[in-house]
Amino acid sequence: MEGTRSSTGRDDLLRRIRDFTRSVVEDLGEGRFPLITIDRFRNYCTSPDFNCSCISDKPKGQEILTLQRKSHVYRIDVLLRVLLIVQQLLQENRHGSKRDIYYMHPSVFSAQSVVDRAINDICILLGCSRHNLNVVPVGKGLVMGWLRFMEAGRKVDCIKSPNADHPIPVLVEEVKDIVSVGQYILIVEKESVFHRLANDQFCKENRCIVITGKGYPDIPTRRFLRLLVEKLHLPVYCLVDCDPYGFDILTTYRFGSMQMAYDTKFLRVPEIHWLGMFPSDSEKYDIPQQCLRRLTAEDKRRTEAMLCRCYLSREVPNWRLELEKMLQRGVKFEIEALSGHSLSYLSNVYITSKIQGRAYM
Ligand SMILES: [Zn+2]
């Protein structure tokens, strides 16, 4: 089942918060320094050894926070403040965004990232997912195509106009009754490509569902995608630019991100096929020389670091080979480079020929 790491009902979480704060207060009352143990997770390592333990979703170590260490004092302060806000949200059964929480004590929370880390720590401490805390991100994903569902009692009917975009629901746990007559799900990295397809009436011509997370996908986009895959059992393809960012976004959809590694098993979508753009597509699809750009030093550094991720060699060695090719050739290009042929070449030729010819990996 999606969403539940252990028992994560509201009452359960409130009880766990009370137990946790009580033990901290008791320690302080009896003159002891409380020790806060936080499990550490990762979704990949860079060990060349095939037997690394990343494949299991178990913690890969622990961190112990104590008031005896100066650097931990601030972190504990933030953690307890955010915990108090979360407790309030749960008690009143309201939702708040990470940004709302930041603005409750902006002088203490020096940056949004400080709040984000505390939220992740709290999820690990309580053994739950972020949405269980009633903390919702501001959604940015879009969906269109042959899909209909209920969202919090409201009907969202994309089929009526399959080339119109709809925001991806933020409260994914309230999405029910998903119906589709689509044949596949297509994820596109960029919003511009999503709108290109909409303009070309792509979903009218092709029975499919198209999703974009507008760059690195947020949690609702990934959870919604995962829900669609679980309920509809449709093949999923992902189309990204041929550059290190595109590849990293592709791996975020399929394997999850390091930041959310504690929750990866509810966010990753292992069914994803990489549809393109592959480095070899520049020749296969005759991308003009002037559309190929040199990899920068930073691109090369990122690519080399990605090549070491253990999940690539273990689960998708052919993806890794393509990434290696990108580095060897030293060039990158965007999906839009196909527009050199014609504006709708992407919709009419590239995507359909790749899917029909099974030219994905
Ligand atoms: Zn590993």
UniProtKB/TrEMBL annotation:
Mind listing the GO molecular function terms for this protein?
A: ATP binding; DNA binding; DNA topoisomerase type II (double strand cut, ATP-hydrolyzing) activity; metal ion binding
User: Where is the Topoisomerase 6 subunit A/Spo11 TOPRIM domain positioned along the sequence?
Assistant: 184-355
Where is it localised?
Nucleus
Q: Where is the active site?
A: Y103
The record's principal subcellular location, in a coarse class, is nucleus
> What is this enzyme's EC?
5.6.2.2
Q: Name one GO cellular component term.
A: nuclear chromosome
Q: Where is the Spo11/DNA topoisomerase VI subunit A N-terminal domain?
A: 75-135
Q: Which BP terms does GO give this entry? A: meiotic DNA double-strand break formation; meiotic DNA double-strand break processing; reciprocal meiotic recombination
Q: Needs which cofactor? A: Mg(2+)
Asked if the Swiss-Prot or TrEMBL record annotates the protein with the keyword Lipid metabolism, the reply is no
User: What is any Pfam family matched here?
Assistant: TOP6A-Spo11_Toprim
Which Gene3D superfamilies did the record assign?
3.40.1360.10, Winged helix-like DNA-binding domain superfamily/Winged helix DNA-binding domain
Give the family from UniProt: Belongs to the TOP6A family.
User: What is the name of this protein?
Assistant: DNA topoisomerase (ATP-hydrolyzing)
